[in-house]
């Protein structure tokens, strides 16, 4: 049987989301790994950080590397990720090489060298250093200009990936409709009658605007659904490839929202907020999208991030809430 290590934090997260199915899956995971490695002729070759899925680098029979991901088979995210990657077919995203839904297993192309777009941006967005901010080279003005140039390059990489990914959704594709996410706003308002943990007026405004944007969508495409600086990696087959799609169908504008408050949305370095206006302009120009829709989707998705944080028991909405407040005066 394969010898694998399951960190306590990983076990805790899995069992919190799936108390019964998760515990059963974890108990069987070593045997499942052994079976998948044998059936797909793979060898373990490295590890990755774990969250809700067990993810490792593997060697295939031809000597190439790939990424093996195993998760709780009942997870809707696994099915949606696979459906989205199958639709993308390697265009702007890593390729889906094999899938076994019954065992919750997927084999994915590995993006190499695999450096995330956040590395282009540099040390922006993270929590403050304990000894104070890092000095800007050649003065604050030069530092801000260098940061702006790096951010423009990172945003250009994400725009290029979006243009590769977005194609009209075919009939019958097994992915949820974006418009269905409106229920998250409604559930939040029912659960939290006041302004804690989020200002009620912001949630009401975002919910209404979400519906308006979906109703006036210029097209209906297959969306990554969680595209940001940590989910776009350098590659050789294409310059950049997306990973970990959530898989959803709807307005192309939804894709820009997470880019406006990332990376490190829970960090307290708000340089990202200072960069947001330039990002809005660059996204609008690069995606041929009206600027008011970029602003509107940025606001809506920032509030939605806070809504999801509250639904999971969090009390700090982080930078997304600060972005929403910044964008509020710019709403159409």
TrEMBL record:
The keyword Isomerase does not apply. GO terms for molecular function: kinase activity; phosphotransferase activity, alcohol group as acceptor. Transmembrane segments: none annotated. InterPro entries: Kinase-like_dom_sf, NH2Glyco/OHUrea_AB-resist_kin. One of its GO terms (biological process) is secondary metabolic process. Residues 137-146 have a biased composition (Low complexity). Residues 123-148 are annotated as: Disordered. Keywords: Kinase, Transferase. This is Streptomycin 6-kinase. It comes from Actinoplanes teichomyceticus.
């Amino acid at each position: 049987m394969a010898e694998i290590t399951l960190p306590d934090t990983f076990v805790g997260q899995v069992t919190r989301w799936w108390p019964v199915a998760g515990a059963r899956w974890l108990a069987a995971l070593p045997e499942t790994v052994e079976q998948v490695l044998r059936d797909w002729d793979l060898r373990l070759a490295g590890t990755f950080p774990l969250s809700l899925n067990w993810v490792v680098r593997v060697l295939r029979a031809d000597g190439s590397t790939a990424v093996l991901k195993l998760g709780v088979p009942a997870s809707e995210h696994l099915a949606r990720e696979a459906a989205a990657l199958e639709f993308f077919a390697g265009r702007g995203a890593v390729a889906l090489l094999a899938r076994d839904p019954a065992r919750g297993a997927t084999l994915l192309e590995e993006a190499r060298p695999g450096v995330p777009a956040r590395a282009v941006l540099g040390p922006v967005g993270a929590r403050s250093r304990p000894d104070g901010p890092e000095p800007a080279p050649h003065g604050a003005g030069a530092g801000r200009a260098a940061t702006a140039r790096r951010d423009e390059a990172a945003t250009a990489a994400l725009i290029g990936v979006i243009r590769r990914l977005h194609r009209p959704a075919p009939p019958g594709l097994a992915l949820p409709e974006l418009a269905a996410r409106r229920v998250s706003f409604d559930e939040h308002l029912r659960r939290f009658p006041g302004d804690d943990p989020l200002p009620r007026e912001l949630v009401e405004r975002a919910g209404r605007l979400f519906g308006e944007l979906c109703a006036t969508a210029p097209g209906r495409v297959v969306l990554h659904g969680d595209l940001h600086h940590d989910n776009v990696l350098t590659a050789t087959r294409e310059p950049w490839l997306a990973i970990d799609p959530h898989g959803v169908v709807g307005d192309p504008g939804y894709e820009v929202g997470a880019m406006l408050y990332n990376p490190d949305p829970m960090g307290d370095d708000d340089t990202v907020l200072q960069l947001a206006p330039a990002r809005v302009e660059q996204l609008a120009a690069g995606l041929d999208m009206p600027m008011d829709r970029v602003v509107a989707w940025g606001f809506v998705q920032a509030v939605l991030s806070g809504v999801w944080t509250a639904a999971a028991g969090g009390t700090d909405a982080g930078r997304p809430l600060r972005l929403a407040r910044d964008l509020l005066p710019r709403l159409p």
